[in-house]
Design a protein that fits this description.
elongated, alpha/beta, about 10% strand, disordered N terminus, two-stranded antiparallel sheet, about 50% helix, 8 strands
Length: about 290
């Protein structure tokens, strides 16, 4: 069950060691083909402890060279929270009580009350996946977390850069909904029973790899933790393929700073490989 967090927080082709060392970066320049000027691709991590957050002078320099910011979703959309919340609620008459035995549901109710101060009624209509997202913050191993997307949107507003998204809320939520609900239940039980040490260890290993800016090693961690609960094609590969034409279209006439989860960058089906296959030149920036 520790494998789930790596895909949620972060909503993430092996090469030789010497080549990997040369190409290790979170920031890449995209050029060539029909692009009038270069655009930039940055790998984020959707949740990170505040003490681990870092932003280099190089990242800042190329962010300023871009004319617009494009994230996975349009985080500047005033209706974004409403759109996302619509996908978090079970339709029909189904509730969380239907996924658990009476004893399990009672334990979950006690956990919710003790850790949130709210009654189970506040959470009962949530889909299981959204209950996991709500309860998983403790797996980070720190008290205060932040997100790159928040900082990027704030900077874009400061410099009056337009903000847009690579995909719709419906598309991203469909990927999350592809996770079978019966695979999510054991993870919820692990949370309420306090069996999350392996989740924290995995997340910290991923953060350490992220801080080294090694997106290929990060992809291999995700790939090694994949199981029947997590569909690599639906959560990563299919979305990556869909993004390539959109990256080309958005960046065609304006230099764009693209920022997506770092897990999307590496691997044979990653955005870096797909952009190169499409004929673009992709260069690491450190």
């Amino acid at each position: 069950m520790m494998r789930f967090l790596s895909f949620c927080c972060l909503l993430l082709l092996s090469v030789a060691q010497d080549l990997r060392a040369q190409e290790s970066s979170l920031l890449w320049k995209i050029s060539g083909k029909e692009l009038a000027q270069p655009s930039y691709l940055f790998g984020t991590i959707h949740q990170i402890c505040e003490e681990d957050y870092f932003w280099t002078d190089t990242m800042q320099k190329y962010f300023h060279r871009a004319q617009q910011l494009c994230l996975e979703l349009d985080m500047d959309d005033p209706l974004l929270a409403v759109k996302v919340s619509q996908h978090s609620i079970n339709t029909g008459n189904k509730s969380l009580k239907d996924y658990f035995t009476p004893k399990e549901y009672s334990r979950l109710s006690v956990y919710i009350k003790e850790h949130t101060g709210q009654s189970m009624e506040m959470y009962n209509r949530l889909k299981p996946i959204w209950l996991v997202l709500t309860l998983s913050n403790g797996d980070l191993g720190c008290d205060a977390a932040t997100a790159y997307e928040i900082h990027l949107v704030d900077s874009a507003k400061k410099y009056e850069m337009p903000v847009m998204g690579l995909e719709t809320v419906d598309e991203q939520m469909a990927a999350l909904s592809s996770i079978p609900e019966d695979k999510i239940k054991p993870y919820i039980l692990d949370i309420i029973d306090g069996r999350t040490e392996q989740n924290t260890e995995l997340f910290q290993r991923m953060v350490a790899t992220y801080l080294k800016q090694d997106v290929e090693a990060l992809y291999r961690i995700i790939e090694s933790e994949n199981d029947a609960m997590l569909s690599m094609d639906k959560l990563l590969d299919n979305r990556n393929k869909r993004w390539i034409a959109r990256i080309a279209d958005i960046g065609k006439n304006k230099s764009t700073f693209f920022a997506v989860g770092a897990g999307h960058l590496g691997g044979p089906g990653g955005v870096l490989a797909l952009l190169r296959q499409a004929g673009y030149t992709v260069t690491p920036l450190r």
